[in-house]
């Protein structure tokens, strides 16, 4: 992607026309920009060529809004896998709409995009401040979620019939592509409906978004599993603790959990290929010298080593082979052939982690994401998501976020840290 692609104008429904009551909003932000990228050479190149520096629009409340709060109805939908903080975001949107702007009608569409079609018969929930009061204390999503294609035209029919002015779509790259398809259909019908995305991915793999909500909770829960794996490994002769964590194409949870617990000896991520022989040789050396080892593997790592189901899930995401089970079975068997008996304990906390309530930091993050989503929607912005970049909340056009995954740069600073703490991956090839 050319860095100038980021110097954009966010889509808007039209000119702002209604003075905002901004009852509870303390400050109003002008159209500031958050520079991208932080890479000095890219910035120097822009300056040398006389081009404007690429930037995201800063998020925040504006002096004028597009919708009339007294007539506005909004909808919220959650799609894809669970993630800590989903309920916090739902609650933040409802409370911001109500308290900051005086919007009283918010529908919660049930079970993902299914709830926007009529054929599944899911009736929307009415989300009042009272209905969401304690929501942030629970994991999961009040609304339910789903995968699988839905008829976009039918979804827009529902929005039109229910007179929804802003749809908030909370989900991963699939959900965001769906939100874009909905926006395009809205445009074809010339309707005044805004669609705002809030990126949800436990894998932290949305492009042009520095951090996504739930990731920090996931890392801290993953660290608990790594502690247990380490205790099990140290408690046995030739003990190995093996932990599998989520991360289909991006190994951020595995990498950060490894950094958070520097006892991890091998961190295997999708971005860095390895061979079984290389891993076994390094593992054997480690156990010979220290008597135990801890391995963290992301679910998408080593896919060339395992049998893959040749299937997709309902949304078309490729199903992965189970690298955790493969290593659990292969490591003791192959090390035995090499003359070493080991005791391996396997921990897969994936679903436990992603269904947790958000930790304190993620709760704050979700609250602010929800508020910024409401501010953006109220001004008539559309086909965008609320991002986070250089510690600023930003407006990111959906096409810049949903079509290419963010992945670990193996040569980058994070990965250098992983190398420094494990000292292993390069010799495992
Ligand atoms: N191009 C698209 N047009 C319309 N709907 C889409 C499109 N791409 C994905 N969707 C829909 O978006 C929903 C969520 O997609 P998906 O199941 O891939 O989860 P996700 O949002 O990527 O979250 P996760 O990160 O948990 O996988 C599904 O109902 C899927 O059918
Ligand atoms: O089992 P499910 O619900 O389809 O979700 C699994 C996937 O969802 C993710 O958590 C992304 O949200 C991936 O890491 C994982 O592969």
Automatic annotation (TrEMBL):
Protein's UniProt keywords contain Magnesium: yes
Family annotation (Gene3D superfamilies): 3.40.50.450
Pathway assigned to this chain's UniProt record: Carbohydrate degradation; glycolysis; D-glyceraldehyde 3-phosphate and glycerone phosphate from D-glucose: step 3/4
Pfam families assigned: PFK
Active site (catalytic residues): 203 (proton acceptor)
Catalytic activity annotation: beta-D-fructose 6-phosphate + diphosphate = beta-D-fructose 1,6-bisphosphate + phosphate + H(+); beta-D-fructose 6-phosphate + ATP = beta-D-fructose 1,6-bisphosphate + ADP + H(+)
Residues involved in Mg(2+) binding: 173
Annotated residues for binding of ATP: 81, 147-148, 172-175
InterPro entries (UniProt xref): ATP_PFK, PFKA, Phosphofructokinase_dom, PKF_sf, PyroP-dep_PFK_TP0108
GO MF: 6-phosphofructokinase activity; ATP binding; diphosphate-fructose-6-phosphate 1-phosphotransferase activity; metal ion binding
Sites annotated Important for substrate specificity: 174
Compartmental location: Cytoplasm
Entry GO terms, CC: cytoplasm
Keywords: ATP-binding, Cytoplasm, Glycolysis, Kinase, Magnesium, Metal-binding, Nucleotide-binding, Transferase
Known EC number: 2.7.1.11
Predominant localisation class: cytoplasm
Boundaries of every Phosphofructokinase domain copy: 73-376
BP terms from Gene Ontology: fructose 6-phosphate metabolic process
Binding-site residues, substrate: 201-203, 246-248, 299, 351-354
Quaternary context: Homodimer.
Membership in a protein family: Belongs to the phosphofructokinase type A (PFKA) family. PPi-dependent PFK group II subfamily. Atypical ATP-dependent clade 'X' sub-subfamily.
PANTHER family, sorted: ATP-DEPENDENT 6-PHOSPHOFRUCTOKINASE 1
Protein name per the record: ATP-dependent 6-phosphofructokinase
Species per Swiss-Prot/TrEMBL record: Desulfoglaeba alkanexedens ALDC
Name of encoding gene: pfkA
């Amino acid at each position: 992607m050319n860095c100038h692609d980021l110097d954009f104008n966010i889509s808007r429904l039209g000119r702002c026309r209604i003075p905002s009551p901004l009852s509870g909003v303390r400050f109003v932000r002008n159209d500031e920009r958050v520079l991208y990228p932080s890479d000095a050479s890219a910035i120097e190149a822009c300056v040398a060529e006389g081009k404007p520096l690429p930037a995201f629009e800063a998020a925040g409340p504006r002096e004028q809004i597009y919708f009339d709060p007294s007539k506005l109805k909004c909808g919220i939908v959650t799609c894809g896998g669970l993630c800590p903080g989903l309920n916090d975001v739902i609650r933040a949107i409802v409370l911001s709409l109500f308290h900051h702007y005086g919007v009283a009608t918010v529908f919660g569409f049930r079970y993902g995009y299914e709830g926007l079609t009529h054929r599944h018969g899911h009736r929307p929930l009415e989300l009042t401040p009272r209905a969401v009061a304690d929501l942030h204390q629970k994991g999961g999503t009040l609304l339910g979620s789903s995968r699988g294609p839905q008829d976009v035209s039918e979804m827009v029919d529902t929005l039109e019939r229910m007179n929804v002015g802003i749809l908030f779509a909370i989900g991963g790259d699939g959900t965001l592509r769906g939100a874009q398809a909905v926006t395009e259909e809205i445009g074809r019908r010339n309707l005044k409906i805004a669609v705002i995305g809030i990126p949800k991915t436990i894998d932290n793999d949305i492009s042009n978004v520095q951090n996504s909500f739930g990731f920090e909770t996931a890392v801290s829960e993953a660290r608990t599993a790594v502690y247990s794996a380490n205790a099990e490994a140290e408690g046995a002769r030739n003990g190995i603790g093996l932990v599998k964590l989520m991360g289909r194409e991006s190994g951020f949870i595995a990498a950060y959990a490894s950094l958070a617990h520097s006892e991890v000896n091998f961190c295997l991520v999708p971005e860095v290929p390895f061979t079984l022989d290389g891993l076994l040789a390094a593992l054997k050396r480690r156990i010979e010298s220290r008597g135990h080892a801890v391995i963290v593997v992301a679910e998408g790592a080593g896919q060339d080593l395992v049998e893959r189901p040749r299937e997709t899930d309902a949304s078309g995401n490729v199903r992965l082979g189970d690298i955790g089970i493969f290593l659990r079975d292969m490591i003791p068997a192959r090390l035995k052939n090499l003359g070493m008996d080991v005791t391996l304990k396997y921990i897969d906390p994936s679903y436990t982690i992603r269904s947790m309530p958000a930790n304190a930091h993620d709760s704050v993050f979700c609250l602010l994401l929800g508020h910024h989503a409401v501010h953006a929607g109220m001004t008539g912005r559309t086909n965008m998501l609320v991002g986070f970049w250089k510690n600023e909340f930003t407006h990111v056009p959906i096409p810049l976020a949903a079509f290419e995954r963010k992945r670990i740069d193996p040569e980058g600073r994070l990965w250098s840290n992983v190398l420094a703490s494990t000292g292993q991956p390069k010799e495992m090839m």
